[in-house]
Amino acid sequence: MNPAEFDFLARAEQDFWWFRGMRRILFGLLDPLARTRTIERVLEAGCGTGHFAGVLAQRYGWRVFPLDLAWEGLRYGRTLGIDRLVQADIRRLPFPAACFDAVFSLDVLVHFPEGEERRPLAELARVLRPRGLLVLRTAALKILRSRHSLFTGERQRFTAGRLLKAIEDCGVRPIRSTYANTLLMPVALAKFRIWEPLLRKPPASGLAPLPRWLNALLTRLLHAEAALLRTGLRFPLGQSLIVIGEKKD
Fold it and tell me: Cα–Cα distance between 126 and 63 in angstroms, integer?
């Protein structure tokens, strides 16, 4: 990822609408699984600043191992007091096989060229114990690429069918999959396919601060999606894609 994006992440992760809303969505999908499974050791592969690893540890009481290739992100984790930070490439994880009860990788696979995501996926599956959980989130649908995508170094986007096939090829059985950030898709299409091409501005981070009222409104929209997904609903399209799988015995 573009190293410059870590500064924006560090300022935005706690309160920016996208992070608050996507956490609510992900926890809504995770909570029922966490209550019925024994999960102690967890890897977050591609942890960025380590902020979300700290949130996971606090919410569920798990022993989380945050890992990232970029020191620019990990140095923020040190200032946050995050434990067990590891600098490594997720294509060559420095852990033995079957040593984690759950593995998270959020918005990381998009930084690999199309087709090269299979190697990191195989590594994530390797370190996961049988019946352990693999939790993935990626940017979805090529038509939604934006100035922010270019700025962060995004190289690909996924469809549900392609990502589900990729994890099954690695020995992981899908449990739940859904698109997310769906309600704002019409706005995103207008912005990314009409407005941004007209402006012709250079790539830039999409994490600039917003007026408080707008940040609150956008947060509520994602919280509404979280409530719908908790009922078992699955969105057929969206700006993000979430897949939760279980490693086969």
Answer: 19
